[in-house]
Amino acid sequence: MTDQEIPYNQRSSILIRNASLNGRKTDIRIEDGIIRSVGETKERDAEITIDAAGDIVMPGLVNTHTHAAMSLLRGYADDMVLFEWLSEKIWPLEAHLTGDDVYWGTRLACLEMIRTGTIAFNDMYFFMDRAADAVEEAGIRACLSHGFIDLFTEEKREAEMKASVALHKNIRARNNPKLSFALGPHALYTVSPEGLRWCAEYSVEHDCGIHIHLSETEQEVNDCIATHGVRPAAYLDAHGILTSRTVAAHCCWLDTDECRLLGERQTAASHNPASNMKLAGGRAIPYSDLRNASAPVTLGTDGCASNNNLDLFEEMKMAALLQKFATRDPTILPAAESLEIGTKNGAEALRTGGGVIAPGYAADIILVDRDTICQTPFHNGSSNLVYSCNGTVVKTVICDGAILMHDRHIPEEEAILERAGKAASALVARRNVA
Amino acid sequence: MTDQEIPYNQRSSILIRNASLNGRKTDIRIEDGIIRSVGETKERDAEITIDAAGDIVMPGLVNTHTHAAMSLLRGYADDMVLFEWLSEKIWPLEAHLTGDDVYWGTRLACLEMIRTGTIAFNDMYFFMDRAADAVEEAGIRACLSHGFIDLFTEEKREAEMKASVALHKNIRARNNPKLSFALGPHALYTVSPEGLRWCAEYSVEHDCGIHIHLSETEQEVNDCIATHGVRPAAYLDAHGILTSRTVAAHCCWLDTDECRLLGERQTAASHNPASNMKLAGGRAIPYSDLRNASAPVTLGTDGCASNNNLDLFEEMKMAALLQKFATRDPTILPAAESLEIGTKNGAEALRTGGGVIAPGYAADIILVDRDTICQTPFHNGSSNLVYSCNGTVVKTVICDGAILMHDRHIPEEEAILERAGKAASALVARRNVA
Question: What is the ipTM of this complex?
Fold first, then answer.
């Protein structure tokens, strides 16, 4: 099948033949966005037949914390102290962002995520209607939040509530099963108690997700205890924010009780190891405590300004290595678990319906090259994927039964790179003139 | 110029046109393995002309600590406690290694290094004559050491001395400027004082390098103090091992005085962040102390069993991120410095004559893709190379004025993957039967 014949970003009936699943050859039938069968089949009547020729089939990766449009800020400022980095570089540049910038930044981010095998992401930023446009054109799944920051004023709170509701309506109107909405209360230090409570209530009423930053820095913990007399997770819980639909990003500084609380609430802790290391927060997520508490741990890249890429294969390695380094225990977070937090756990947290290669699950799957340096030798598939390979090992990406990349080809790649590059240059030029 | 016309692994006169160097377009003329001119030229009489079309030119990367043939063990065992990992998995498998295995493992490693922009490496292993065969066929530079392990017996020491001298002779006889020999005393806990002293003396007499493990684990430090009453660097120095021709791998547990000692001796400290994290040693190299002491810091991947790849682009990111995490200082080891330890510092440590793009330096250079996702946008070249890209960004590799990869093509890649994969399977089969 040539590239021209692939109906990119259109749900199709797909028959994948000769894929390798857990070391065995298999066929996979996909219809209406769902995996219908796994195992050898004699059926041949699919709109698209892909001969995987031994490529490995696995669930697509899920990025549970990012700010996609920040791809435009990739490399704009690095190696700085957090507050200076934000106040002198990131925020002044963001002040000049337009809806078009967010559109092109999100297109660039989606391009990068698809190329590296990510099929869904959890996003929080501004101009999210334009982010939604970009996501729909890319064909990837996304849960979109308007970053709700009221800075403890009623006026701003009203505006953020309005913006959140407007985004929710906008997303509902698109009637696209791959798009969902979440409340995005930014963090306990940027959102008033009233704002948090409103988000929590809206989330219950409309069965929406919640996407929030939690305990990224030690200062957040210290300030919260000083101001409110409780640690951050307890504070958020008192305002209804910790739910089974909530993704709490970072969670570096949780203590054991807080891990237990996340476990009780079934709130997902999104681990962002590269960002935590680069910004020098100083503490790795308490993975063992979270796991012991049965709290779901998922994986995220954070935005490109603090990573600086969106490659979850790299992130799986970083997560496993950081845990080992921080705990001095080489057995913690082994390769197979790292794969699980990068795929299944993320899919459950974002309620994609995927994350597992089995009948009835969403057809959010990727084909991974088997004939590469990083897969040679092939003693252990999980180990190779986590420790040896990066996202360039991905050949084909299928999301909701639609092909988004095939044989490493993604439509419009060159045009997106060019337009996003120009948008970034123009953004910096506007900031420099101002 | 088509692939067929490229004389791979043959020194040629090369004219690179339209390369991007520090943001400016330039031509580069290469003759007799040396960079002859940098800057626009009207000369056109080169055997090979490469239109870089805006690709970035930079020094090739230098891997100052690896065990190349361990690529055959990639993924064989992970996520285990160090001693069990070594005694139950790695050593029993290594006991079945043959010269042919080392040849194919080293070919696979050279393939991976060339593909990811590495032009020289510092190797320590067994059957090093076969490693030398592989290195010559690959065309990369290497400094080869026989791993000298006498376990404090005279009989073994004699054998190791003999093996070291034999390897030195073997390498000299090849008369290949890209190949050099170093003594390889494995570590202070595996080599007798007599063995260390012999290595030191041989190194002076023959102006050879020394390649040794130093302070990889806390236990090494504690045992050394308990047994010898001094810390490891002082102990090695007392035996003449710390010289300006020495590369000391790991160096995680050096204290400030030891860093000063390495600075005085101009001994290179090879940082191996991924391996240190994966094996959970618990301490990052004291980069600031080494830098303050003007000790050269270089970069290494360690062997594939503890990394599990040889991609120095990934390692530059890991190095920068690990320093920031371990010190809680986001300004430490910024991108430009990470590039320097990955290129120039390594080239100086291995005395390749390269590491800088300027006339008179060895033509050990790579062309890096500019039109990729990881380079979009292009706010900062160093940042993109270190934080955003991985080794797949490399398009063309020139070593000693010979082209080893062009437009991502390396001769014999498929055959090497196949043969190395088979060698690894056969090795495991032999171990399982035994």
Answer: 0.97
